[in-house]
Amino acid sequence: xxxxxxxxxxxxxxxxxxxxxxxxxxxxxxxxxxxxxxxxxxxxxxxxxxxxxxxxxxxxxxxxxxxxxxxxxxxxxxxxxxxxxxxxxxxxxxxxxxxxxxxxxxxxxxxxxxxxxxxxxxxxxxxxxxxxxxxxxxxxxxxxxxxxxxxxxxxxxxxxxxxxxxxxxxxxxxxxxxxxxxxxxxxxxxxxxxxxxxxxxxxxxxxxxxxxxxxxxxxxxxxxxxxxxxxxxxxxxxxxxxxxxxxxxxxxxxxxxxxxxxxxxxxxxxxxxxxxxx
Length: 278
Description:
Blueprint: E1 10-13, E2 19-26, E3 33-36, H1 48-55, E4 59-63, H2 79-92, E5 98-103, H3 105-116, E6 121-127, H4 140-154, H5 159-163, H6 168-181, H7 194-208, E7 222-227, H8 235-245, E8 249-254, H9 261-264, H10 266-277
Parallel strand pairs: 3-4, 3-5, 5-6, 6-7, 7-8
Antiparallel strand pairs: 1-2, 2-4
């Protein structure tokens, strides 16, 4: 299998003329996994070790949102709009049913995809995320701006502060994660523009102010995963509440881990995620 850092970027044009950049990796599978990235993320912000691990058993398809990276168009102004675009992307691929893997904002988008078209989804993994209207989600803009200012001042990648704990272990794990993100050297994706980034932040703020979604009548199996100290989407009570929202759910909380607990504990997460998706 070609490792994720060497997988070529493809483009797809939908019937409504939306252009999506995406990558596809893994073994052919009846139900592909659609991976939805975090705020400001592009195709190179996925931990290649985690994607390679999932791709050992599944076909993983990773799109850029509209207005981000190699995709065309403008960034959607709402989380619901992003979900509609992802559904259009999935249908343009000719897929009848998929699994979802949403990280952070991608978890918000995944929930809206389920809400809009539940029959499209077989199973879902929601990581570093919370329910619509969840506690503290409206504060993502403030937390992101504060962490960005600190990162600029210290010449440090902002994900060091947003994604990991500030313990010695957290700092060490952050450094290893950031090193993995840089292992792809050729044909890297374009970074998000400032306008699209602020549009995504406004969409998150709006989504965090809206009423929760009632998923109680759905039987879609859901795996909820987070670190025990997520400062972006507070673990307590969001992870518990998100798991309780679904009638068929499992919850995993990693110790001494933050927003990116699934990448900090990548080996364990891959094993559990693959077992869940089976």
